[in-house]
Amino acid sequence: MSLTPPSLSISDLTKRFGRFVAVDSIALELRPGELVALLGPSGCGKTTTLRMVAGLERPSAGEIRFGDRVFVSIPRAIELPPEKRQIGMVFQSYALWPHMTVFENVAYPLQLRGIAKADIRGKVAAVLDLVNLGGAGDKQIPQLSGGQQQRVALARALVYEPALMLFDEPFSNLDTQLRGQMRMELKMLRRKVEMTGLFVTHDQVEALSMADRIAIMHAGRIEQIGSPSEVYRQPKTRFVRDFLGRVVNLRGTADAGGFRIAAGGERLAVAATHDVHPGATAELSIRPEFVAIVPAGAPDRPNSINATIEELLFTGDRFEARMRVGGDNVLFDLPSDRAWAEGESVRLHLPTDAVSIWSLEPDAK
Amino acid sequence: MTTEPLDAVPVSAFAWVFRRLYMARGEIVAAAVFAAVAFLVLYPIGTVVYLTFVPNELSGVFGTIPWYRAFSEPGMLQSVLNTIYVVVAVQVISMPLSVGISWFLARTDLPGARMIEFCFWIMFFLPSMGVMTGWLLLFDPDFGLFNQWLIDAGLIKASIFNLYSFWGIVFVHLTTYGISVKVMLLTPAFRNLDSSVEEASFLCGANRWRTLIRIVLPLMTPAMLVVLLMSIIRGLETFEIEQVLGTPIKFQVYSTKLYLLMANSPPEFRAAGTLGTAVLAMVLPLIVLQRWASTRRSFAVVGGRGGNARIRLGRWRWPAFIAMAGGVAFMSLLPFLMLVAGSFMKLFGFFDLPQVWTFDHWATALADITFIASLRNMLYLGFGTAFLAVGIYALVAYCAVRAKSRLRGAIDMVTWLPYTVPGIVLSFGYLNMALQVPIFALLYGTVGALILVSFLASMPLGVQVIKVNMLQMGTEIEEAGRIVGGGWTRTFRRIILPIGSPTLAVVGIMVFASTIRSVSSIMLLSTGANRVLSVLQLEFLSGGSLGPAAVVGTVIVLISLAAAIVVRLVSSRFGIQARG
Ligand SMILES: Nc1ncnc2c1ncn2[C@@H]1O[C@H](COP(=O)(O)OP(=O)(O)OP(=O)(O)O)[C@@H](O)[C@H]1O
Ligand SMILES: [Mg+2]
Q: For ligand 1, what atom is nearest to the CA of residue A44?
């Protein structure tokens, strides 16, 4: 046995279906005990990636290693079949076996491992308790609700303590309320069970709230990998910026270490720029909730700019405001604890580390 | 657990190639399955087509001469024309009838619609020879009950409907598969039609009739086309009806002609080959049309999600029921009762003898060595084919569902091919093959040869049913079995097979039922040694021994009925679509 604990390492992984490239030479490392989300829009290759890790799909090129084992290596013509990879997987459809009871579904992996009957009973009972299904062992699969089936699928994957867990949109078949509850439960489960895991989702809230790190995929490539707050606050590509949540864009001109708003002419200091030459037309992006809005005349903070409220919509807990900043119209939420007025001037404070600058030059990506 | 040390990069090219092959083992198995099926299907067809190119031994001329010579032989062209006449007559009558019946069953509040639909299903399962024997008791020109009653009642002078005639042949076609297969397939299609399309038409002010003509039928056209083509192809399969009813009046269709050519001594291989090829050429456009129509059916089966409101028949409800139920009883129950009655009659059809009823035919049959041997052969054939079919169809269907795209299409093609080859042409091909390939020569004259041909003949439908159910099962069920640590064989045994077993049972029984009653696909390979009951029945019918024919027919019909009921029970219990 080697001393380094197992961790998943994907390199140069490619999958082509005919001439269509579904996964385009991606690389990804999972540290032990880490839960990583593959996040991206429909059809970007998330499921395909997960299936290649599981051994259900053969890569067209590349390598996947887990600790000191090679799962698959196309250049070296090595491929471990799924049953030898010792992984657990929760399928989107749950894939429970309808001809077996709940108990039999969960016990089957243990039977495959030649575990004694008495031990099987104990282990199955324990894992069913863990997913809050104690006592449901004799039920038939079709008798269960969606959430219960989901738990059985989870129990079946956990029962043999796999070193790596894979989830393919595990909550997408549940209604919103149940989804929230299951997210919470899975998060709590991670405190009880040590697991390294990779999960696929196209729901950014799910990824941001559950994962230790997020890999954002787009058209078969990984655009960015990082912690939830990192990818949320400092997107590296336009796609990541726009995919992860609302964003406010202001046009202007870049200069060395700063940005000048078009029309308004005010200058802001910024931290992150993306291949923007000084003097180039560019846009400044920030997530609206990072912007602090105060009435004009209040004590000013550095890196603030002027704006005018053009239109106000009262929605109960807050106002939705359309504001004019320089030459742009942008939308912000305003707290409802103060009476705002249309036509009122306000100051927007843009924290330096939450701002990024993107080139608007025609040759920019 | 297999651990692969990271740095142990294989240097030897041989090892690399070996690993590469090992990785491709799934594809290799699928390719082998494809090759085996392709050989078993294409080789015999090839031998038939090849015969038309064989140069004449005398003139040594290659090419069109065999065609010319073959078709200048008396009766050849006529037999092809007759085939077309029968097919056209059957379809022209059955199509409007079936559409009407299906519409009533699916779209109106006709009482007992499900029951009547079930009767059509039973009718489809009834062996055509048994039905024909039953009809003979009614419509024989000399002693047919129907004709006699009318004569006795003084309504007519001479018999008006003679089963030994063109229209008699058409009549038997209609009452066996002609109407039943269409009703079986069209009724669900009508049922799936969203009733809101009709309702919308009513709201626009159209009446029922107009709605049917302008809205419902156009929507159903693709489905109807598929069913029509299927039924034409099925009609081209028949042999026994024309053999029994057509031979006495010298009316031949291509299949009886082909049989006759091969019964000559010496057998006329080249003429038979030409005839077979001509029929294949006739079927081919139908097949292409059917494939095209079935891929376009997207709007035929609209939704099923919408309403399924039935049209109220009002005071026509019970008259319609009586007409429908009466028709069904006439077409299925009557010939069946006649058949059973005939098996107990001293002289088939003669009800005015001093002693009408007897067990003699049964007693003779059950004591007869030929009958017993044929029964045994039939059971060997039926069970042998069913077991072979279930095992291999499952494998083929699995490959057809799971293989990589290109291979998948190819497997689909070859499994589907026998559907396009009438049974008698296929068995003719096997006869040729037996003369060329030593292994098949060994099979000739054994039940094994019949099993092989029957296995191929049932393959398109059988594989299709299993495939549909595998697709429904989805891949994840199986993949989950692999992920949790089971190998492929274990997963197949513990997960796929148990879930699929009701389907496999249904397919097995369907294969059994259709194998034991069929004659056309095994007739040419039948010898004294491997004679089965259906062949024996045909021999009795052709020889005019109607009593014994009725006994054999009753046995086959009863077994078929039992099979039909088991299929129905199993598939409704497990929700299988066994209709193909
Ligand atoms: N077996 C296949 N044959 C051909 N194309 C495929 C196959 N499987 C997937 N694809 C294609 O590869 C692309 C990626 O598919 P994948 O299932 O990985 O997407 P995804 O990111 O999981 O999307 P979703 O969020 O919709 O599940 C899609 O465009 C899909 O059409
Ligand atoms: Mg997916």
A: 21
